[in-house]
Write a structure and sequence with these properties.
Blueprint (H helix, E strand, L loop, with lengths): L11 H14 L12 E3 L7 E3 L1
Antiparallel strand pairs: 1-2
Length: 51
Amino acid sequence: MPRETRKLLFDSHELEAAALGHCRGEGIALPSGRPGALTVGTGPAVALRRR
């Protein structure tokens, strides 16, 4: 049976825009200002943290 695997690669600006857009769309409160750095986890639940 054939299988297909895809990998999406984002640069840091695209990742920031996608993550913050998702949070805004879901009504998740965000601190003001731009993040200094983004850390993304890869567990069953993905976490995005502002440092």
